[in-house]
Amino acid sequence: MSRQRFTATPFWPVRRPTREVRIGDVGIGGRNPIRVQSMTTTDTQDTKTSADQIERLVAAGCEIVRLTAPSIRDAENLREISAELGRRRVRVPLVADIHFTPNAAMIAAEHVEKVRINPGNFADRKKFEVREYDDAAWSDEIARVAARFRPLVRRCKELGRAIRIGTNHGSLSDRILNRYGDTPSGMVASALEFLDVCEAEGFFDVVFSMKASNTQVAIAAYRLLADRLAERAPGRAGYPFHVGVTEAGDGEDGRIKSAIGIGALLEDGIGDTIRVSLTEDPVREIPVARALAARYDARAAALATLPVEPCDPGAPFVDDPFAHARRATCTVGLGAVAFGGQEPVRAEIELGPVPADPAAAARALAASLAAQATLACEGLIVDCDAASAPRLDAFAAALASAGVRAPLAARLASEDVETAAKSIVRVVVPVTIASSRDGLAMAADGAARRGVALEWQLEGRPPVIPALVDRALTASHAAAGLSVLFSVASTLPVHATRALVARLRARAAAQTPVVLRHRRDPSDGDEAAILHAATDLGALLCDGIGDAVAVGGFGDAGRALDLAYRILQGARLRTSWTEFISCPSCGRTLFDLEETTARIKARTQHLSGLKIAIMGCIVNGPGEMADADFGYVGAGPGIVNLYVGREIVERQVPQDEAPDRLVELIRRCGRWADPA
Ligand code: SF4
Prior knowledge:
By secondary structure, the protein is an alpha/beta fold. The structure holds iron/sulfur cluster.
């Protein structure tokens, strides 16, 4: 069994214990709520514009604000910005963002409450050198890096400033890349080298981040760091974590990607302050971050007086929590579509009750799905009771005549399985602690005789799930030839689904496919509903769990289908559109990133399976570009470099021409298709 020290238990929400680090008036970690922060996109030498934006951020609910300090002059101007905020009576801790310039960090520390350094470039410039380091050379390099970093640690200790050791997947040093590659292990090793210097100086006001644009990599890196810190100091409260997904992009996709990565970690109890990085006005990041944090602060308050409910499924939920691997399952045929095995993670829609007017509902559904013509609807499920059951075959016939071919499933009670409509290919049967063994046996026998697949939907909090799995498996085993799937309906869906798959492993049923179901909470607003769907489904998908996702409660069927596919793309399980890895921009940005991203998106969005990185500068460029097919990176005022993978293929392109040149480049590489 692999180490799982990153969380107290994967089967119940428990926040990772950390020390409190003070950033001016604001505490991070300890018993503090999850803090929300952002970063300015203004020129740090422009005092008024920067103070204006900070004032708007604070008014929106931002609790900590970061500014870039790429030069000594920028670092010096942090004093003016701080003074201007004081004159305006805006109280908010400031953080200086440092890449490449230790001298600027020393000055910035005088004027702000925290300094963020990037271990990948604090003491190194990127040269993409391939070099073998023997132990002596490796030690020499670490000593050199420590000597560059130590003065800043000492100065921050004297001044009472905090330091964020902010590692980025996209900007690891050549030395780390040579030994560890572009991996979560390399990110963690890089961060811990800097922690060694802090601890040797008796400095403990440290916050960590491990950002990546790939949600799977970000989750793995944060977990691995939590694990390594727990190993270094067993039983002691760890250092707080600043959690975020970098270069998440804009619009709904940026929000979904952020909700998957940040939400998955908050589900693990990891995260003391969060930043949602959107390629938009940073003020628009704040409601998103607040909606994500509020869910976990509310949950923590609700559970504060309750003991952790023990849940022991008898096996781990995943072999390796530090690397994504899709759970191996068997294939179950469901009419024209199969779930599990090598099939893609399927997308289906929860429709709610069987419609009162099947023909009208089928026409409306067909029209709604036609608006998402490029997305296959791979399953439909309706809730069925004695009153609505007679309409089910009529609804199936109306769907067929309206051109909707998705296989139909019905959620119904155990005793109704045998007599259920002929048109369905799967029955979904709820299992609760009140379900009788006879009732479950009746459902299993009925499904086997009818030749339809049976999905057991386990209902309850994580601690009851193992017993429900046992009951369902016992009933299934007695029914020869039955195809079985599982799903969960729980107020804690991530933890309960982990308990499900862990129990299936413990009962030698590890290969049983699992459907991830999400219905919108009617009390959620529109944005919160999308974020919660993304977290609940995406966290499990990133753990490799899930052979299908089913989304419901969003009113329009096409909207639900679109959301399901966007979540699959955000979790990197299925790619339906071009993925844009675009940075949020900051004072280093060399062009209008929001407008440029919109222009490039308008030209290339229809291309399927492509990743395009759009970066304001080169700081995170090369590493994140390794994950992208094409890159568009600011190289100077009004100048852009174009990349294919990590290689610069066109230099010094005037910004006005660059979007057209990018399209030409995509054509030359054979990746272009005209829009339909
Ligand atoms: S990549 Fe974007 S956000 Fe990051 S430092 Fe460069 S301009 Fe700023």
